[in-house]
Specification:
Length: 102
């Protein structure tokens, strides 16, 4: 059981990568998303990983209604995670008004 199964509805959404790869890809995507959204100075490495993984889970869940996410490999997972992390950071910036954490 190498693949990651996300609890999405009754059946779950199965991704094409394992949990370790998901965390690594999510971390890289979260870091790049924080660079794109100019929030890197406010976030540490742990928060980058968290934002990337949460963004990947949310984006993968939403995208599963439109395309087959089971067949997606590492690059597909990376771009989905990046998109999800950027959207998640944009929402956080909109809600907090772009305030910097101190």
């Amino acid at each position: 059981m190498n693949d990651l199964v996300l609890a999405a509805g009754a059946g779950g959404v199965k991704t094409g990568v394992g949990i370790i790869a998901y965390i690594i890809i999510g971390g890289i995507a979260g870091w790049i998303a924080s660079k794109i959204m100019h929030t890197d100075a406010q976030m540490g490495i742990v928060l980058n990983v968290v934002v990337g993984v949460i963004g990947a889970v949310i984006a993968g869940y939403v995208l599963s209604y439109f395309v087959d996410v089971k067949g997606g490999g590492y690059w597909f997972t990376f771009f989905v995670a990046l998109l999800g992390a950027v959207v998640l950071l944009a929402i956080v910036k909109a809600v907090t008004g772009g305030r910097a954490r101190r």
